[in-house]
Amino acid sequence: MSVAPLKPGSAIGIIGGGQLGRMLAMAAARLGYKTVILDPAPEAPAAQVANRQIVAAYDDPAALTQMANLCDVVTYEFENVPVAAVEWLEARLPVRPGSKALKVAQDRLLEKAMARDLGAQTALFAPVATRSDLDAAMAVTGLPAVLKTTRLGYDGKGQARIVRPEDADAALQAMAGQMAVLEAFVHFECEVSVIAARGLSGEVCAFDVAENIHRDHILHTSKVPSALGPEAQTQALGIAEAIASHLDYVGVFAVEFFAVRDGEQHRLLVNEMAPRVHNSGHWTEAACAVSQFEQHIRAITGLPLGNTGRHSDCVMENLIGDEIDTIGEIATEKGAVIHHYGKAEARPGRKMGHVTRITQKTA
Amino acid sequence: MSVAPLKPGSAIGIIGGGQLGRMLAMAAARLGYKTVILDPAPEAPAAQVANRQIVAAYDDPAALTQMANLCDVVTYEFENVPVAAVEWLEARLPVRPGSKALKVAQDRLLEKAMARDLGAQTALFAPVATRSDLDAAMAVTGLPAVLKTTRLGYDGKGQARIVRPEDADAALQAMAGQMAVLEAFVHFECEVSVIAARGLSGEVCAFDVAENIHRDHILHTSKVPSALGPEAQTQALGIAEAIASHLDYVGVFAVEFFAVRDGEQHRLLVNEMAPRVHNSGHWTEAACAVSQFEQHIRAITGLPLGNTGRHSDCVMENLIGDEIDTIGEIATEKGAVIHHYGKAEARPGRKMGHVTRITQKTA
Questions:
Q1: Are the beta carbons of B331 and A289 separated by less than 8 Å?
Q2: Which residue range forms the structural domain that includes residue B152?
């Protein structure tokens, strides 16, 4: 199937106006596309570099009508967009990626089941609604394990660790009655992720695997190349391809893995997927000719996918809360590529910017 | 002198809303600054990625008052801004670079005299107001020579070549009564330019010299590294430093040179300077951690100047008029970094976008 790409000057709607939308909007502009941001917060980070913002809730009917009228294609920058809003839009114009991927990504249980059904490995897991489910689940996973709400969790929110059986009650209580999933604790050597893209024609390609370090459940650094060998890249790409084809996916997505040592090699266990550009792919903007943001715009507009080659080694570091105040010092560093998200207030735990330090390519 | 840099969230006014303003606005956003564009054309390319546009003439008093009220610093993206407007703003807030550089850059005669006074070489030249001036000037320069209006010429406009004495009358007529300068024709081996920056603290640094090819008087390609040796880089930087200090310059500027073979070496003759980011520096966005656009924003906000190191070799090619329609094919090329300026209409001779092709660094 070959479809003519959207003409420059066409409008891309982006649901969500945070830093991911901001970087998408700039990538769209560089390819000559206009952008319309839907976000309830006035002067959202993305809106500051977009042609237009609709200030409204994500499921506001008038706002969605306006999006459908103004835009040639719609995408989203976070996975907690109401599925009903995306389905409503999908009936009127292309939404890429669509509601199918969104539904899976909004539910940890569907996500893990999909990965396992596609032949990928995951940590042992079991669904938990009641106290007796939890007992059965602990028998499956063993301890320690982590209980997580199936929906709306991010950056460690909605999670409770169970180290000994007597932690079970408190963990279940922390779920506040929401459907949950118990996952076996994985003794991983490192966490890695792959940022891949599937084009309108079905082609899939991926950037180099990044090695990620989290702090307080929030991504701290992503390093490329990772410590893993080329076989990890092959494994990761294979899993990404299977997921993307299964979901009829169009656009960029991320798959996060635990890498477990297995003799001389590593096995990758799927942790979770994100149906969008991803924090662990920000390094591509500094170290590749085509960034994950441009790649996503290329995919959803029907342009050919870009080359994912990397010209430099790099380490991306998030600037969280008042770490953003170090930007003046960072600006003195050789090879530092700075990105400030234009957020007015530096609350603790809030992603305010990032810096990618590039160095000569070694591998 | 050490001044605290402008805080993120501060507003930068940009006079002129073309592609240079567009790339400046995106660089400003990446550093967390807001932008206000002054341009008479609604939805100007820069305004599409800026926080705000004031749609008015460059010398509109109400618009200038609004700029002064909204902005913390003002800059410009083209050198034909009315000097009076910049002087009016300068009395109220920092304008970087200021009116001093603008006056020189608006007058070819002042520009060449300054270069010569600073010890740089230029082609032989002489001022021409009348027919008898022209005879005297031809005696200075010899033939062939090029007669150019001293003001408002760009991309070959306002120029007439004099090959034989009998071409003189027509050439003078082409100046339409404007003050002109006759320049000796230079048998150059190549044309090169240097993109340099001077910070608030007086530090000066430069990107690698680019080798430029023009077609129909419009820049066609810029290639880095150039064919010239490291001595050309040293020469070019020396001249740039002298000019910048002389003008108390703050920001990025370009100096274009003719490179003339001189035995094993090359001599550089100053052709002209531009008190702004420059088309022959667009390659920096694809091949350096810090682009000329970010460098300019760093300079005018008081941030330290960025490292000008280059991670890749590259060739930047302008996409003029309907060449922009090839963007879909270019998107299939490995290593191609695309920039589309968001202009609605592809008129002949109009700069619509550019592509930078990066390859592994060789020198």
A1: no
A2: 124-184
